[in-house]
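Task: sequence design from structure.
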């Protein structure tokens, strides 16, 4: 019987309907999954990767609490995994650092992070304000520095600065939680500053106790090991104002060239010679000191290793050094070929005059407290030096030979010398001498203070070296004595 589509016309008789089936493979539709994230205020949460995920693929969840917050809970697909989070450092969850958690995807997954603020604990500083001060600072991640606070959240880094008043010192420091147990809080001292301490804030208020006591007045006397000789102090500890004796013993063929005592702040103390040969003394300041010495060969007797005994300027350098007119640029260097500045020259003259006191000179470029400040004021007030302009002195400018001669010339006249000069026209560069310095150069040549750089050259515009300045000052001293 014919069948059209899936229908046929029923005959006037019974029929049997039969069908034959064949296998058709099913169509497979690929399935991927998505991880969605959400969080409360106080932090962020991300999933990597988060979309187009295959079954079993690994996803890493990253949580980042903000400053002042911590991760309260993390759920993945409804399961609490807070305690399974790995932090970049074990304490960093206090600080809001990065934490991670990884899992294998088995379907679409929801990740929820909840953040909460730390308890803001109070820090009570207990100390006697008559004897010192205690200040607190808390590290701010937002500002990347310490800021003054008397309260902190759990895990915050707290800085404690203890400042005893003069005559007092910190006797003890203790920090404890303000709760039933009163547990001690660990702290540590700064490696850089003795009076600075740090601790991490616990999850409770804390009491910080500082006890001050009268300071021990004795300080240590450090004695450096010297080459070619030995140094020995009569005490290792000394109180403020105490006389400390130092014995300097040179090796055979050497002599004590210089003995230095420097304070903790870098100031050099005055050292006195005792009656007994080889013994010196100084008065102990209220800080530790370091004693050092330089033993020179007997033929040299200068601490400077760049001033040879055979050099033309040796006698001049030894003269100004022994007279206290010039120092080295360091313990062992004189730098004879280095140029000398206007400020240095005036200071040398001032030392030669006995270091008289004088108020400020009024030059805008002569700041208070510099080594040449009083010297420039004294020399300017007495007409020995003039400024480069009406208001500037240029203390750090290299001095020329004619400028140096002019300063010595004015000083000689201030002392009462006539200042008569001689004819310098025979020098080939006499015409290069400035008009203001001509009389001074004439006087300097006549008096023997200045000699030419050669038989016929004065070099008035050339800068003076430290060695040349030493020679001119020795010549000047011989002229006025």
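Answer:
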């Amino acid at each position: 019987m014919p069948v059209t589509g899936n229908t046929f016309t029923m005959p006037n008789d019974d029929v049997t309907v039969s069908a034959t089936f064949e296998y058709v493979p099913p169509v497979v539709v690929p399935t991927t999954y998505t991880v969605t994230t959400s969080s409360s205020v106080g932090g962020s949460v991300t999933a990597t990767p988060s979309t187009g995920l295959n079954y079993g693929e690994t996803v890493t969840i990253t949580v980042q609490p903000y400053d002042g917050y911590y991760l309260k809970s993390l759920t993945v697909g409804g399961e609490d995994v807070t305690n399974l989070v790995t932090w970049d450092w074990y304490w960093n969850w206090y600080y809001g650092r990065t934490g991670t958690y990884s899992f294998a995807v088995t379907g679409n997954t929801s990740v929820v992070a909840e953040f909460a603020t730390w308890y803001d604990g109070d820090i009570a500083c207990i100390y006697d304000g008559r004897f010192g001060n205690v200040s607190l600072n808390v590290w701010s991640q937002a500002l990347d520095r310490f800021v003054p606070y008397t309260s902190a959240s759990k895990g915050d880094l707290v800085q404690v600065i203890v400042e005893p008043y003069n005559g007092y010192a910190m006797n003890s420091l203790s920090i404890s939680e303000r709760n039933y147990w009163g547990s001690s809080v660990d702290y540590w001292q700064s490696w850089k500053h003795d009076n600075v301490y740090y601790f991490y804030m616990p999850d409770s208020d804390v009491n910080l106790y500082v006890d001050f006591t009268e300071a021990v007045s004795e300080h240590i006397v450090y004695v450096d090991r010297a080459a070619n000789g030995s140094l020995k102090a009569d005490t290792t500890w000394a109180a403020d104002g105490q006389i400390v004796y130092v014995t300097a013993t040179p090796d055979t063929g050497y002599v004590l060239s210089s003995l230095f005592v420097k304070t903790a702040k870098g100031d050099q103390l005055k050292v006195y010679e005792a009656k007994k040969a080889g013994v010196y003394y100084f008065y102990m300041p209220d800080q530790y000191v370091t004693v050092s010495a330089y033993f020179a060969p007997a033929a040299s007797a200068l601490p400077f290793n760049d001033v040879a005994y055979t050099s033309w300027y040796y006698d001049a350098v030894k003269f100004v050094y022994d007279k206290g007119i010039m120092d080295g640029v360091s313990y062992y260097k004189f730098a004879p070929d280095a140029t000398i500045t206007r400020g240095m020259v005036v200071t040398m003259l001032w030392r030669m005059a006995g270091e008289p006191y004088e108020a400020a000179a009024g030059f805008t470029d002569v700041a208070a407290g510099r080594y040449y400040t009083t010297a420039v004021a004294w020399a300017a007030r007495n007409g020995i030096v003039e400024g480069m302009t009406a208001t500037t002195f240029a203390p750090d400018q290299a001095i020329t030979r004619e400028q140096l001669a002019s300063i010595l010339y004015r000083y000689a006249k201030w002392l009462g010398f006539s200042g008569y000069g001689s004819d310098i026209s025979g020098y080939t560069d006499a015409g290069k001498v400035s008009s203001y310095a001509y009389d001074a150069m004439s006087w300097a040549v006549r008096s023997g203070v200045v000699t030419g750089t050669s038989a016929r050259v004065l070099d008035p515009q050339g800068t003076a070296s430290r060695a040349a300045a030493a020679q001119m000052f020795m010549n000047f001293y011989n002229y006025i004595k």
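The first strand starts at residue 35 and ends at 39.
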